[in-house]
Amino acid sequence: MKYGIIGRNGRMGNEIYNLFSEKGHDLVFSYDKEGENFLETPEVLIDFSLPTAFEKVIEYVEKFRCPLIIGTTGLSNEQITKLKELSQTLPIIQSYNFSLGIQVLLRLVKLADKLLDDVDIEITETHHRFKKDKPSGTAKMIKEVLNKEVNISSLRLGNVPGDHTVYFGNLGEIITISHRALSRRTFAAGVLKSAEFALKAVAGFYTFQDIFELTKEE
Amino acid sequence: MKYGIIGRNGRMGNEIYNLFSEKGHDLVFSYDKEGENFLETPEVLIDFSLPTAFEKVIEYVEKFRCPLIIGTTGLSNEQITKLKELSQTLPIIQSYNFSLGIQVLLRLVKLADKLLDDVDIEITETHHRFKKDKPSGTAKMIKEVLNKEVNISSLRLGNVPGDHTVYFGNLGEIITISHRALSRRTFAAGVLKSAEFALKAVAGFYTFQDIFELTKEE
Amino acid sequence: MKYGIIGRNGRMGNEIYNLFSEKGHDLVFSYDKEGENFLETPEVLIDFSLPTAFEKVIEYVEKFRCPLIIGTTGLSNEQITKLKELSQTLPIIQSYNFSLGIQVLLRLVKLADKLLDDVDIEITETHHRFKKDKPSGTAKMIKEVLNKEVNISSLRLGNVPGDHTVYFGNLGEIITISHRALSRRTFAAGVLKSAEFALKAVAGFYTFQDIFELTKEE
Amino acid sequence: MKYGIIGRNGRMGNEIYNLFSEKGHDLVFSYDKEGENFLETPEVLIDFSLPTAFEKVIEYVEKFRCPLIIGTTGLSNEQITKLKELSQTLPIIQSYNFSLGIQVLLRLVKLADKLLDDVDIEITETHHRFKKDKPSGTAKMIKEVLNKEVNISSLRLGNVPGDHTVYFGNLGEIITISHRALSRRTFAAGVLKSAEFALKAVAGFYTFQDIFELTKEE
């Protein structure tokens, strides 16, 4: 596919570029603080930049009339509303977490919770020492999926990219479901899956969980 | 319920007696090397003894005309055939593993396998030093559920009751699903669930997986 | 050896009796709520009862003039002082944790802490749902050994006998040291080791850590 | 310090350059397939290249008369002999594994083995799917340190940089010591430690284990 990136030189921009190149996709447009680089009109636009670049993002989407995958964090309610407006005529995919494995973890956790009775549940998450917030957003997502009061333990340790574990224990046995991110590449893979989906999708507002559910029929 | 045990003084007989008593059920019949102890006709009969006692088991089932839960290992094909004959008129539940958690593990493993692409899969199992066979029967069940060539690593360690772990890994992330037995109590709980099921079941031959599937609708 | 137990019918009393019997030692004296059972004067006395039985314990030690291993929890300062007085003429071994493995864990943690620079340290402990206190006494012992401010995460899960893990992480690697109790038997083994030590020891007041250090020369 | 790298553009050359720059050290010489880049005579020379460049390495060491840290794998016996000759007048540090954590793991494993009796020992190692050899060299080092027959289980999983775990289990408890590499950075840190050591060392042939032992007094 022919794609464009806004935030091309950021950490995620780089990861996306590397994975997409490896898979034979062509970067035909990019935009960053340094300015724009236009070769051709992209079939899909990817944004991993900052909320301050949001107006520029909208401008480009309206110019190219192509689907948008947006992973920029910290969007305001007004910005989300604007995306939903756009989604009436174009596919817009918005998420704060593009990891396929975390979506699988959530599904497994839901199933385990349904199948097990009389269990205690505990969540642990381990991240690098630079992470300021406790608990992680993903741990909160897990708790939400369980929809009950669950204790979350947060460990801050060296340079761990991100581990999440959910324990279910009763008087006879323990079941544990864990996810360990090895690198940022996994997030780029989720963006690629989203871009492939977007090319064939009808107009609408999608989260990464929607992509996951729609492309993986049980 | 009013229940009977054949193999009352064995390890599993003991565990079953303790759990059933705790839950308010009455042992009204038992049979062991020491002989029989009859108070009343049981509503359900449980057998955790030896294949050599099989004829006695059949004799009692035919006398009491009640459902049978049989966890005795090493049954011959003829003995299984005999059980199937009996199951035309009575509910017969036969299994070599009455752990609820292992059934949940199998379900989780199946779901993870369906949802994940391009993953390597590895299975590890850890058991006490006295276990002679490698790999464990449960590890083989997991491999069967995956229905593909998967490496199984067997660890023999001290007095571990039984740990099983399945790893799914791609280039970006690892998902792990583990089961750890804390004690034999978990198997007794599976027997209780089976007995409760048997009281309401129509005649037929059931495995523990059937019980699990039939009593836990997704 | 010929030994006696005070608190013979308690959980630990039972475990001790089972292990000591297996190893060929003779129970020649016991005392419990039900009363005393005297066959012969013991060479060593073991107390796992309640602080309320403390006077009786002292009475028997003075009568038998034999070493005492005391694992009863919740002793008052006065009671400890009384033990120290007794230790001027007899070996007295007092501890709240008779696990050999925990002593090994402490030694490993000390060594890792000495060898590693610029690491974050995290402690987790997992215990059964019935445990009321958080964090566990053993987790506090680990923190004391490290002698620095360390975060402890406590998980309460089913019927886990007791897991403790210490993580050391820097920007490149993680080292983990874990201890998992499989059963109460491990504590009985520590009592046996203490009893063997006591038979040959000079008068004095010992903790279980002393026994461990004195019997295991590095 | 002023240092030089042979194999500057390789994966390890890059990691070393990044870490050394971060710590304020100056690359004053480099050599690679593309040719040499000489700014100043280095105080220490680092080689992470190929055995085919060995003659060039020796040539530069003799020209600069400076210590050498050499991590190139697959050296022949003749090449090792040549290094030992050189080490009569210069410090030469040679190793196939510059991870500090693995050295700590080896020390912990040795201590645990000394302190524990009647244990079963198991080793597991997990590496990315591209690793061809089983078991890993590091797992073999662990086995050598234990100096007894120990089972090694090898898992090949996605893109795992390298996990090693040693289990010690008896009838009552399990002790586990694990090492998990997060990235190549840890190896660069070992090279830096070696370079700092080399600047102050007397002539001699050292392995990384020597550096570790000499700089970390227990």
From TrEMBL, chains A, B, C, D:
Q: What EC number(s) does this enzyme carry?
A: 1.17.1.8
Q: Which UniProt keywords apply?
A: Amino-acid biosynthesis, Cytoplasm, Diaminopimelate biosynthesis, Lysine biosynthesis, NAD, NADP, Oxidoreductase
Q: Which residues does the UniProt record annotate as the domain Dihydrodipicolinate reductase N-terminal? A: 1-98
Name where it mostly resides: cytoplasm
Q: Mention any Pfam family matching this sequence.
A: DapB_N
Family, according to the entry, reads as follows:
Belongs to the DapB family.
User: What is this protein's name?
Assistant: 4-hydroxy-tetrahydrodipicolinate reductase
Gene Ontology terms, MF aspect:
4-hydroxy-tetrahydrodipicolinate reductase; NAD binding; NADP binding; oxidoreductase activity, acting on CH or CH2 groups, NAD or NADP as acceptor
Q: Where in the cell is it found?
A: Cytoplasm
**Binding site residues for NAD(+):** 7-12, 32, 71-73, 95-98
Write out the pathway annotation from the protein's UniProt entry: Amino-acid biosynthesis; L-lysine biosynthesis via DAP pathway; (S)-tetrahydrodipicolinate from L-aspartate: step 4/4
- Specify which residues bind NADP(+) according to the UniProt entry for this protein: 33
Q: Which residues form the active site?
A: 127, 131
Q: Which SUPFAM superfamilies match?
A: Glyceraldehyde-3-phosphate dehydrogenase-like, C-terminal domain, NAD(P)-binding Rossmann-fold domains
**PROSITE patterns listed in its UniProt record:** DAPB
Q: For this chain's UniProt record, which GO biological process terms are given? A: diaminopimelate biosynthetic process; lysine biosynthetic process via diaminopimelate
Q: Which gene is transcribed and translated to give this protein?
A: dapB
Q: Which reaction does it catalyse?
A: (S)-2,3,4,5-tetrahydrodipicolinate + NADP(+) + H2O = (2S,4S)-4-hydroxy-2,3,4,5-tetrahydrodipicolinate + NADPH + H(+); (S)-2,3,4,5-tetrahydrodipicolinate + NAD(+) + H2O = (2S,4S)-4-hydroxy-2,3,4,5-tetrahydrodipicolinate + NADH + H(+)
Highest classification ranks of the organism: Bacteria, Thermotogati, Thermotogota, Thermotogae, Petrotogales
How does this polypeptide assemble, per the annotation?
Homotetramer.
What range does the record give for the signal peptide?
none
